[in-house]
Fold these 2 entries.
Entry 1:
Amino acid sequence: SQQGEEDPQALSIQEGENATMNCSYKTSINNLQWYRQNSGRGLVHLILIRSNEREKHSGRLRVTLDTSKKSSSLLITASRAADTASYFCATGWMGGGTSYGKLTFGQGTILTVHP
Amino acid sequence: SQTIHQWPATLVQPVGSPLSLECTVEGTSNPNLYWYRQAAGRGLQLLFYSVGIGQISSEVPQNLSASRPQDRQFILSSKKLLLSDSGFYLCAWGQGSSNQPQHFGDGTRLSIL
């Protein structure tokens, strides 16, 4: 079953506005990652937040994690047309044994930033 | 620095034909390697992963197979393609811990006619 679910599925905003995407997951995790995918390209890692962290920043990106609600949010401030892409959350498996670095990806949010 | 290459970028194949997609990684040793499939507008489905030469684990039953003949080479294959094999195939490498990011190639767009 799909671990991460992003919300909204699609988001359309004007340049300069902030974009917020949410991710919910079902099981215990040891970290949550956000990736970006430009159309027809591979995924690019944006930021990783560990289960014992509540907030993390990287440039115009701000990620929060609420393990009690099993949810995370990605905020892109002062968006640019170049931010147009799909954004995915991915969860790292937590449990007994070895995870082999496997990640479970959500369905993604398609962000369109209009100039 | 580490790089990952996938080829071909696009491929159009008839139903029933064989398939071989290749992925190579440079600049790192003993990486974990992953093959994903992405349906249009959807998330990624993990197909196979490998923790070493000749070691392949399958995540979902399917018409595809994977092999790792060298440390930094990962191949996705099929003997007879089905229409349902169409999709965007992505290769990725990681350090073997889910506390580390995965690094992706630019994918292969496979269309089955």
Note: Chain A has no helices and eleven strands.
Entry 2:
Amino acid sequence: QKEVEQDPGPLSVPEGAIVSLNCTYSNSAFQYFMWYRQYSRKGPELLMYTCSSGNKEDGRFTAQVDKSSKYISLFIRDSQPSDSATYLCAMICFGNEKLTFGTGTRLTIIP
Amino acid sequence: AAGVIQSPRHLIKEKRETATLKCYPIPRHDTVYWYQQGPGQDPQFLISFYEKMQSDKGSIPDRFSAQQFSDYHSELNMSSLELGDSALYFCASSLATTTSTDTQYFGPGTRLTVL
């Protein structure tokens, strides 16, 4: 079993819809949680970063962490075609440096 | 804002050849990480350096070696290349702090193709 599980999709939603992307993890030592967006043939781009349970909002993006359930989510409001990409969750333990990634969810926003 | 720079962006080699990938971190960042991303796979951690010393090691083959130089740039050396080494190689950098684990910022990647 992988330490981080993420539904690979693909996920297609109409423009303007709310998108929910999710990851579960098994290692309770993970303390920091990131969401990266990766366009085709590009490097992962950091979207959100959080270390506490609860919600963190940045524009149209909301990152949600539930440490008790070992579950994190990324919500995208008012989705745009430019949001079409692969979204990777990533986690790291305090004091460690190695990011552990989910497999990524491929998202397509349909105009 | 300056980002992580990787060179070359594309590299084509034949089996058993050697390749060197370079990474220039964001200015003032002191930590560099290398990741390998195969087709359709998530990035896999290879190795990291903090203040020019190896700080963590992942699934890096013995045929690969890396180092961080005094100007904090890093090089990944890959010898006896195999077809399975064909992948995107990402470098990321961060600024280590004493109280938290800082976020990693990725470069554009080097696409290595082994023929």
Note: Chain A has no helices and eleven strands.
